[in-house]
Structure formats: C-alpha cells, structure tokens
Amino acid sequence: MTAIAIWFNNESQEHPTLWVAADSRISASQTGRVLLEDGAKIFPLQIVCREPGADGFFSNLSYFHSVGFCFAGNTLMGQNAYLSLAPLLSNLISPTGYVPSMADIARYVHTYLQRTFDDYKSRVGKHAIFEAALFGYCHSIKALAIIHFRPQMSDGMCVLGASTKNVMRTGEFQYLGDKNELMTKRLSEALSGVPAPGRPISRMPRYVIQDCIDDESLPSIGGDLQLGIASSFGFQPLALCKPRIVGQPEAFLSYLGRELTTELLHVGEARVGFPALA
Q1: From what superkingdom does this record's organism come (predicted)?
Q2: pTM of the predicted protein model
C-alpha cells in the first residue's frame, strides 16, 4: 500500500505552499509481497493552454503551470490515470487566453477518473480500489487547494467521489493510503505538537512518514521518502541529500531511494537539477 501526506506549510508568509511526502514501496495487494522499493507515487501534472497566434493556429502559449498529482492503492489505476491525463491537460486550446481554475481542472480529472475506475472495477472488482489527489495553486482564486478523489458508496454502488479543501490553514492536511486512522492520528498530533531538534512543526509530516518507513511493524509502508512542493510557481519534486556515513561530511543525492550517480545525474552536457533536502 502507501502512505502519503499533503499539508499546508507557511514558512514563507508571502508564498505559502503545499508539501507532500510519501513512501516508495509497492506491494502485491493480495499477498503483501514487495514488488518495488522505488515506486513513484508523486508527479507533476502540467497544465498548458495555447491561443491563436498571428497565423491563426494555436501557437501562442497563454498559460503554463504545474500542480501535484499523487495516488494510493491500485498502482495500475494510479499510474495509468496519470499517464493518460498528462498529455490531455498539457494540450489545451482556447481562443480567449483562458486561465484554467483548479475547480475546472479537478472537474475534468474527476470525470476521467470516474470512467477509468468504472471500467476497471467491472473487470477486477474490489482490486480496482484506489484514491488520488490533485493539489496546488489556483491562479483564478489565488489560493492553494487539495482535491481528494476516493471510492464511496452511493445508492449501493461503489463510485469515485471528490472533496475539496480550499484556503488551507496551518495544521491542515490530507492523508492517502494505508492505516488511515493510525496515520491521521499521528499527523494530527505532530502538527499540533512541539518542534524537536531538526524537526520544525512546518515540516513534521515528512518525519511522520519517514518514521513509518523505518518501522518494521508497518510492512505495507516502506522503501524511501519522496517529497515535493506545490506553490504559485508550480510543482517541484525534490531529491534527498544523504550522508555517505552518518556524522561525516561526504553526502550524495538520492531519488526514490536510488543514488543519483554520475551516470544518472547527467544528460549529455546538462545536469539533473533537482533541489534537494537533507
């Protein structure tokens, strides 16, 4: 399964953000056998809109932004949904220089997820269960938002519902994944508690997820930590900066638990430019 927390972070009062932290373990739902320890569950979803240029074609870029997308549950559903939505939402056209709102984007994503969920559950039943979240900054209302998509019962049928959190405040969060009651309690206590050395309250959910990854009594949560930040500037995935030997200065960059060696850091003359957190 999965553990994902999205929370409001106001370290910068002028530019508040939504942070996200997740584990990277993917397990077989029926047996619990670990399939991947470097499973990607957090993604940037680009929203690109074009308007007509002087030649009459939709060649002028009128809007470019990115928001976060994450999922828990059935990996095939979650990853296929993202891979399907990415080309659709990055190829929008409008004659008016339209700025898509998070509400409009969420409505579209919800419609798509409902249809693919209905198709898949007709084949595999309860094994299709998954949940997802869309989160980031809305330029229309100038506020951060989280839209949570999850299965719910309606008239005796299992359907994919949606709920929205707008105008986030300190201490607010959204959890997706395994051990919901336990994790919600831990996250609530962490965000309302006191800071510890090296663990500021504004980043505390990150450490809650990390502690669960390290906890062998929670075998469905594991792998390594993956992080990202959504703001008015877009969505930014983060790498981790880890000490080669604890207590010594030498360090390395890691993404999804995999060291970014020289071969994985360079693309020709370019370099992977991930920001990284220790």
Answers
A1: Bacteria
A2: 0.93
